[in-house]
Amino acid sequence: MKADLKKEIATYTARRGEFSVVTVPALQFLMVDGHGDPNTSTAYQDALSSLYPVAYTLKFLSKGELGRDYTVMPLEGLWWSTDMAAFTTDRDKSRWSWTMMVMVPEWITGEHLGAAVETVARKGGAPALDAVRLETFDEGLCVQTLHVGSYDDEAPVLEEMHDRFIPSHGLRMTGKHHEIYLSDARRTAADRLRTILRQPVARTDA
């Protein structure tokens, strides 16, 4: 049976127009770091061109060698800037830093990653392959919502989350802005893109 972790992990579900406080479990990801406008940055395109081949190679390795099949998870990104207004009001993408990620099951090991990287390297076309790493990421307490629409229309939702919902619920922001891309932007109209917007938080009285 093929595992669909997106359906099994509750925090991969969010509601449009509703902010939820959730506790995200520690999960394991393939990651690549970079900086710059994702629409124009060569580094960003190189990251995606390396993450996806490794993610799919690991899936087939798991199915063939371990007898454990699973659905490849959606692309995710951690985004940050020295000035958070770059996300909410200015939207100056040239000032963004990012970590692009694909979650993999807990039974995938560093040894499996090494084998997958060797396979992808033989095929070529993965320019950031040396930058792909396997890391456990533990976000813990977060606020999240589902945004439907263009990525460029996220600003009002983020402003509402950051400036009103979070402080009004006795919370403060603690980590990097997190996006989970439930839609394939190459095949989905901009106004129908579904993206989970997530912000790690802590309680102000903690």
TrEMBL record:
It comes from the Bacteria. This is GyrI-like small molecule binding domain-containing protein. Residues 18-196 form the GyrI-like small molecule binding domain. It comes from Georgenia wutianyii.
